[in-house]
Fold this protein.
Amino acid sequence: MIMDVKEIRKYLPHRYPFLLVDRVIEINLNDSIVAYKNVTVNEPFFTGHFPDHPVMPGVLIIEAMAQAAGILGFKTMDKTPEDGSIYYFVGSDKARFKRPVVPGDRLQLEAKIITEKRGIWKFECKATVDGELACSATIMCADRKL
């Protein structure tokens, strides 16, 4: 199932400039998702984060992975924010950064469900550029009522 940004906006409350998922290219409910973020030189964070050598901040790479995981969680639960539910990013473990992400990169985001217990979801996530690992982390999200 492919989702464009219009469809993604139904499942994430984020909006520009903080919507960090451009397209979902594969989703397997109850299992995994593959999405991507096109990183352009026009991203607002590049003006202040190493402006002479622009690098995407690591915390935003983790946020992008969490947003992809959030889409997977919402789709798996068959819920949207309009249903009065919100999906909070509540933690990350084992975060590792292996290469910088720079303007022109297509950041592929992958998340796989590890567990879900009482509304707390745990995902194994990775972000790659051209097949090369940029970041990996275990990410936790919580489904809560608004």
About this structure: Residues 58-77 form the longest helix (20 residues).
